[in-house]
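Standup notes, protein team

Yesterday: finished cleaning the Sphingomonas xanthus set.
Today: OstA family protein structure.
Blockers: none.

Input for OstA family protein:
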Amino acid sequence: MNAKRLLIGLAALSCAGLALAQEGISALKGHDSRAPIDLAADRAEAQDRSDRAIFAGNVVVKQGNLTLRTARLTLAYASKDGIDVNRIDASGGVTVTSPSETARGDFAVYDLDQGLITMVGNVRLDRGGSFLSGGRLTIDLDTGRAVMDGGLRGVNQGGGRVTGRFTVPKRPN
């Protein structure tokens, strides 16, 4: 393969990676971050003076067609007229799923007021047979846009790079 074909192939893979990162969360585009939240866990602790609650052990959060699973979750809320959840912090391995995508990472923050989910640490976004991996993934639920960053360079890190693999459909000759 000559150098020109190699560059064209690499450019095509880069475009496919951007398409997955930017359009890969399209199932969540327009997700209603103000929809009711269903939550289940092995243990719960309310800290009313701090306006937060802590959930631990097999935590499952469902909101519309979005599901978040984690080991530990802190839910921050305002308590003026009832409970108004505004932020969810998840740790201990986090998986966020929609009908067509799955994102995994070490930690996640779901800012309900901004409609943003940010995942950090060993992040992987899967859709079909394709995936992207990196250090940080930010998902805008209003637009469906997802941005993957490589993360920090350092010991036991991915070198600050986004990597991926994309399926290529078989085409007739």
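Follow-up from PR in the comments: The longest strand covers residues 84-97.
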